[in-house]
Design goal:
This protein has helices spanning 2-25, 34-55, 61-75, 81-109, 123-145, 152-158, 167-188, 196-233. With 234 residues, it is an all-alpha fold. The longest helix is centred in the last third of the chain and has 38 residues, at 196-233.
Length: 234
């Protein structure tokens, strides 16, 4: 019973850490939707608890969480579907990279010797969860404090001047790659302990990061060009 309460409590902070990483990477507001976000992370924690401890299907936990994040970003943050999928995929991939990296560091220095991916509770699992949560919070606070992250999602939502030819297609391809990666990791991480998963997640996040940088650059350039054209017309 105690382990169930600990798991559920950590799952709430875990879901909030993942969501915080997503919105900090793409400069999306948190406070405006704080009540909905609070209900959402509790729902994700409850869902994860049911899938892992009640039903016993941890393989479906992360893939379906990804879908829930997509729909939450679409209907609460009013993003287009391809942007919601892209943002959610990039953020979850970043969190996977962070979590897997922490695991392999602990394993390398001898803190953890056995795989914990097929476990739902216990000290090793809690060590990984707490470390990942604190690291994600730290990164999110750092990005927020120094105003880092990508802003093209907001400019795209407010105006079409931030788009460039092929943007929607590029983001959709990146979202598809993220989806495949998340589903593969979700299904096979509990049966195959391989360094290949962290490489796969890192490559996926790198693609999203590259496209985010390009979208930011092209968005700023489009705005500047539109501004100069408007001035010339006066």
């Amino acid at each position: 019973m105690l382990s169930s309460f600990i798991y559920f409590g950590l799952s709430i902070f875990d879901a909030l850490a993942m969501f915080g990483l997503i919105i900090s990477l793409y400069k999306l507001p948190l406070w405006d939707h704080r009540y909905k976000v609070a209900l959402f992370v509790i729902f994700i924690a409850l869902y994860s608890f049911i899938m892992r401890l009640v039903i016993g299907l941890p393989q479906l936990d992360l893939p379906l969480q990804y879908l829930f994040f997509i729909f939450f970003l679409k209907y609460v943050y009013k993003l287009k579907f391809n942007l919601s999928a892209f943002v959610a995929g990039a953020g979850i991939s970043a969190y996977m990279v962070l979590q897997l990296t922490i695991y392999y560091i602990y394993n390398l220095v001898g803190v953890l010797y056995n795989s914990v991916f097929n476990q739902t509770d216990g000290v090793p699992v809690y060590i990984i969860q707490i470390s990942s949560i604190l690291a994600a919070y730290g990164i999110a606070i750092f990005l927020k404090a120094f105003r880092l992250g990508f802003s093209f999602i907001r400019s795209h939502h407010e105006s079409s001047t931030g788009s460039y030819p092929g943007e929607n297609k590029s983001l959709l391809v990146a979202a598809t790659i993220s989806s495949v990666t998340i589903f593969l990791v979700g299904f096979f991480l509990y049966t195959v302990d391989s360094l290949g998963f962290i490489i796969m997640a890192f490559v996926t996040f790198s693609i999203s990061y590259f496209l985010s940088q390009r979208s930011d650059y092209e968005g700023v350039r489009s705005i500047v060009e539109a501004y100069l054209k408007e001035n010339k017309a006066k």
